[in-house]
Amino acid sequence: MQTVTGLYDNHADARAVVRALEDAGISSDSISIVGRDGDERESKAGEGAAAGAGIGAAVGGTGGLLAGLGLLAIPGIGPVVAAGWLAATAAGAVAGAVAGGAAGGIIGSLTDEGVDEEDAHVYAEGVRRGSTLVSARVEDSEAEVAQAIIKDHAPVDLDARRASYREAGWERFDASLPEYTEEDVLKERDRLRQTSQMMP
């Protein structure tokens, strides 16, 4: 079993990855999506899907993973739309955590599935700053296909993103920091666009 993960600055790209993974025969139960999307949050907010069990239960069915998207609040990250195993385990960790310990939700869930801890911190920070994370737990025989799909949809270059964060003084994800507002997210996206335009 392997965990294949990609971070996307565009929520629509992340959704396209989920569809492509499902189209390739990877079970919806093996895929997760966690991120910000204002339109989706508005439409799903009234459904009360913040409980981890509710998110996990919503994943099944004929509509695929995206049909189960629900609203989840993660300390240090804020409100996200999420579905799948990562959302359910992160929500479970949050529900059972003591104050200040809930940051392990996404990070702990990813590292438990074999994701490097340094990378898990960048993924969590990316979600905090407005990106969307797609992660699939796949059999070894499916790993190459899953990796190709994630790569084909142009995920964030994790090393470059880590360097960008560190240039601004970031070291690792810290759930005690204030959550990013929508305005903060827009500013971060502008900053990243300007940074990418300056690169050779």
Strand content: 15-25%
- How many domains? 1
Report the principal-axis shape.
Answer: globular
H/I helix tally: 9
Pfam families: YflT
Protein name: General stress protein 17M-like domain-containing protein
Domain General stress protein 17M-like: 5-69
InterPro entries: GSP17M-like_dom, Low_temp-induced_all0457
Gist of the model:
This protein is an alpha+beta fold and 200 residues long.
Describe this structure in words.
The chain has 200 residues and is an alpha+beta fold. It has one domain. Helix 3 packs antiparallel against helix 4. About 16% of the residues have low confidence.
Helix/strand layout:
Elements: E1 2-8, H1 11-23, E2 31-35, H2 38-44, H3 52-58, E3 70-74, E4 78-84, H4 85-96, H5 104-112, H6 117-128, E5 132-138, H7 140-152, H8 158-167, H9 182-198
Antiparallel strand pairs: 1-5, 2-4, 2-5, 3-4
Helix pairs in contact: 3-4, 4-5, 5-6
Protein traits:
200 residues, alpha+beta, five-stranded antiparallel β-sheet, 9 helices, 50% helix, 16% strand, globular, GSP17M-like_dom, General stress protein 17M-like domain-containing protein, Low_temp-induced_all0457
